[in-house]
Amino acid sequence: MNQFNVPVRGEVSDNNQAIFDNLNKAIGMVPNLYATMAYSETALANYLQFQNGKTSFSNKEKEVVNLVVSQVNNCSYCLAAHTAIGKMNGFTDEQILQIRTASSDWDQKIDALAKLAKAITVSKGTDVSEELEVFFEQGYSKANLVDLILLIADKVVMNYLHNVTNVPVDFPLAPELEPELN
Question: What is the pLDDT of residues 102-141, one digit of tens each?
């Protein structure tokens, strides 16, 4: 049984109410997973500051990492959200499904990023030398590597939060991967 109801504006602190107002103004809603963070007085503000920090990756590259990590961690919420955001950033449905398998047959650089993101997530950062070599061969830098690890950490936080709380998904559900793609 789900013990986590999604808090509404009147149930959270004044600081979190202001964040809810800003989210409503910016994106027209307060995503359930963000609202769940508002159980904490500080988590939502801290997380949004971290998530919105500068990175060396494009929005498309960030979505590659978000999709791969969410697939590895089997987070239905984040897969739904980042499928929608991936489409807004120009990926097709087919490309999104392929990215979730940590591959890209249309872009070698995205393929290298996806494979390293998966390898780091699965192995917790150990035994990634082959993927790391290809990542660097595709033109990524050590700065990109550091930013990749931060992006993975960002997504792991949200994946775990949803997997523990199981709050309702308020985005269109992402399609299941075909067994041969998994």
Answer: 999 999 999 999 999 999 999 999 999 999 999 999 999 9
Q: Looking at domain 59-165, which CATH architecture does it have? A: Up-down Bundle (1.20)
Distance of CA 65 to the CA centre of its chain: 7
Instruction: Indicate the helix (H) or strand (E) that contains 160.
Output: helix 142-165
Count each helix (H run) and each strand (E run) in the chain, helices first. Answer: 9, 0
The domain segmentation of the chain, as residue ranges, is 9-51, 59-165
CA–CA distance, 168 with 163 (Å, rounded to integer)? 11
pTM (two decimals):
0.95
| Dihedral of the alpha carbons of 28, 32, 33, 35, in degrees to the nearest 10 | 80
Distant-in-sequence, close-in-space partners of 35: CB < 8 Å, separation ≥ 6: 6, 7, 8, 12, 20, 167
